[in-house]
Design goal:
The structure holds two protein chains of two kinds. Chain A is mainly β. Helices cover 0% and strands 55% of the residues of chain A. Classes of the chains: A mainly beta, B mainly beta. The interface between A and B is medium-sized, with 25 and 20 residues.
């Protein structure tokens, strides 16, 4: 298996623009997680899905952030409009429920 | 929510030295993982260890779930061991991993 695949690897955008991050989980996994990593806050959970259903989105910082999982093999995290403080590395991870989680390589987002 | 504390925050070693990293957590867990974040930012799975002891080469880990801590041992450290080591746990209430702040390890030759 290719592991968790995220795209793009790097994204530079201007403040106010819409940003969409993509994730393909490991085939057969039924849990998917989005995390954000910054120097100030470390690795923080944004949202997670079980069987394509959002379970906990309490970590989503604002209404500007939204996440979807239309099927078992694809998820998106959207920021609209983006702000400079959204600059971070965004990780997607997947697992079988209650078992080992595996992370993608991350998307480094820079909002200027 | 569950709290995860890692110590020490920073560790500087000479190549060949041994080290022990600690992870304390505030509640019972059904998942505990150790990760190594390399200088390129990739999160690499080291151990999935909600309880017991595991070994993988120069690395080993022990989780004492009843006392709410886990230890990661690195023996004969190499420069390639440098990076940040994270402990992450998930408790009975949910399945998402909560991360500690990490231990930054620097190994010099």
């Amino acid at each position: 298996d290719a592991g968790v695949i995220q795209s793009p690897r790097h994204e530079v955008t201007e403040m106010g623009q819409e940003v969409t991050l993509r994730c393909k989980p490991i085939s057969g996994h039924n849990s998917l997680f989005w995390y954000r990593q910054t120097m100030m806050r470390g690795l923080e959970l944004l949202i997670y899905f079980n069987n394509n259903v959002p379970i906990d989105d309490s970590g989503m910082p604002e209404d500007r952030f939204s996440a979807k999982m239309p099927n078992a093999s694809f998820s998106t995290l959207k920021i609209q409009p983006s702000e400079p403080r959204d600059s971070a590395v965004y990780f997607c991870a997947s697992s079988l429920l209650y078992t080992e989680a595996f992370f993608g390589q991350g998307t480094r987002l820079t909002v200027v | 929510g569950i709290q995860v504390e890692q110590s020490p925050p920073d560790l500087i070693l000479q190549e060949g030295a041994n080290s022990t990293l600690r992870c304390n957590f505030s509640d019972s867990v059904n998942n505990l993982q150790w990760f190594h974040q390399n200088p390129w930012g990739q999160l690499i799975n080291l151990f999935y260890i909600p309880s017991g002891t595991k070994q993988n080469g120069r690395l080993s880990a022990t989780t004492v779930a009843t006392e709410r801590y886990s230890l990661l041992y690195i023996s004969s450290s190499q420069t390639t061991d440098s990076g940040v080591y994270f402990c992450a746990v998930a408790n009975q209430a949910g399945t998402a991993l909560i991360f500690g702040k990490g231990t930054t390890l620097s190994v010099s030759s």
